[in-house]
Amino acid sequence: MHACLVVVSVQVSTCVLTTSPVLARACGISYTPAPRHLGTLAGLVQPPDAAYNMDESLQALLPGNLARLPLVNNESMNTIYEHRAESLLAIDEMIGRLLDELTAQV
Q: What is the pLDDT of residues 11-22, one digit of tens each?
């Protein structure tokens, strides 16, 4: 496997794919890994973020409906994060093959 950094920004209607699984989920975007990669990163955990499940006293200070948002289900967020990472493995393989081909032509 080649180590590649791929930064992808794709606009889907009014939503933009970012590193945020919350935004992706809100836009109805799901990450589907190639069958050969499904489960290869099992147990991968999303890094903790202070914005998720903040203390109730802090959340109460947020404006409007934000103050009443439900808690984030960590297990669901970890599954989305895991599938997102697994879906990038096929892109990594593709770029690796492309680099190998370009190197062979030099």
A: 344 444 445 656
